[in-house]
Amino acid sequence: MLMWNPWHGCHKVSAGCRHCYVYREDAAFGTSISPSVVRKTASFSLPLKLDRTKNWKHPSGSIFGLCFTSDFLIEEADEWRQEIWEIIRQRSDCTFLFFTKRIERLASLLPSDWNEGYENVAVGCTVENQDRANFRMPIFLNLPIRHRLIIIAPMLEKINISPYLDPRLIDEVSVGGESGKYARAIDYNWVLDIRRQCIDHNVPFCFHQTGSHFIKQGHLYHIPRQHQHSQALKAGINTIIRQ
After folding, report:
1. Which of 58, 112, 201, 217 could make an SS bond with 62 (beta carbons 3.0 to 4.6 A apart)?
2. What are 135-150's pLDDT values in tens digits?
């Protein structure tokens, strides 16, 4: 997947944002601009770039992960978003994916030809605790979206999402812990409980990241950043059960 960040910068909206990696990475690189300042980047038109032969630099079938150093629905980007929708329309031969903690804004920001959703766009709604799940999920499920993902990250507590696991609407649930020096711990039992809920409702499940502080059988493990994805995969608990 190619990372496409047409703008950079974000501001915190809920408990999952406390140790936001955008703030952490900006601090590490010593940028003089506050990470809460949202600004366009040099990659704004990335999917439209051509190579020396005037063909697409990123060919048909490419998958773009959108706004991983911001939020696609952040308020400060409202004036630029229609340009991004137009790029997505132009590159209907590619797939676009974005995650958001601002799903309540999507209905008012959809392009006029969205209808039941663009076939080449997947939307991930991020939740971190029961409060945000109960607020965001009903909104998410009632929006016209063709491909929906539930992203439980950083997972901060045990969560019941069973009422929202309609296999006709949800393509996958993905769970991850928090990274960084001050990360809050994730308990493996919480992860397994989400997996059970997904299996019960015939929804695919993915454990994508352990986070820095990982509790298993009552023992706290400290997982280096470079091993957090591989250790999650090594658990062997991902399921693909939809035919």
Report:
1. 58
2. 999 999 999 999 999 9
